[in-house]
Amino acid sequence: MILGMMPFLKGINMVATDIFWVGLGGGTGSLLRWWVGLAVSKLYRGHFPLGTFLINVSGALIIGYLSALFGIDWRERYGEWLNAGLLTGVLGGYTTFSSMQLDAANLAHAHQRLLASGYLIVSVVTGVAAAACGAWLACP
């Protein structure tokens, strides 16, 4: 077991292939987030952090869809690499909670506290709705 020497990881079964797939997927998801953010910033110049918002909502929709599509037996049907690489890696790297918080802090610092608060509320509510919609779309 890799990382077994760290006591706080005792009982966690993490092997080199898991680390590889999460890392590869995370890098891919981060590059996708960067690319989408750049594309949105070329088309939209407003104060609302539209790029981060669209990234998080689309990521929530996709993860809701895939989680429902493959159900609780995701690992058994499709293997660890797909779960580690796609759900944890790509979608974990693509979506960005920390950037959402930074965007809100920057808005508040620029004396746009109402927009910052609205952004956080709308982001969370829309993200949950998108994940639910994704799950609904996956169910026949």
UniProtKB/TrEMBL annotation:
Membrane topology type: Multi-pass membrane protein
Membrane-traversing stretches: 12-36, 48-69, 81-97, 117-139
Q: Where is it mainly found?
A: membrane
Question: According to its UniProt record, which protein family does this protein belong to?
Answer: Belongs to the fluoride channel Fluc/FEX (TC 1.A.43) family.
**PANTHER family tied to this protein:** FLUORIDE EXPORT PROTEIN 1-RELATED (PTHR28259), FLUORIDE-SPECIFIC ION CHANNEL FLUC (PTHR28259:SF18)
Query: What's this protein's function?
Result: Fluoride-specific ion channel. Important for reducing fluoride concentration in the cell, thus reducing its toxicity.
Q: Name one GO cellular component term.
A: plasma membrane
What GO terms are given for molecular function?
Answer: fluoride channel activity; metal ion binding
Q: How does its activity get regulated? A: Na(+) is not transported, but it plays an essential structural role and its presence is essential for fluoride channel function.
According to its UniProt entry, one GO biological process term is: cellular detoxification of fluoride
Task: Provide the catalytic activity annotation.
Answer: fluoride(in) = fluoride(out)
Any matching Pfam family: CRCB
Specify the domain of life of the species encoding this protein.
Bacteria
Designated name of the protein: Fluoride-specific ion channel FluC
Q: Where in the cell is it found?
A: Cell membrane
Assigned keywords, A-Z: Cell inner membrane, Cell membrane, Ion channel, Ion transport, Membrane, Metal-binding, Sodium, Transmembrane, Transmembrane helix, Transport
Q: Which residues bind Na(+)?
A: 92, 95
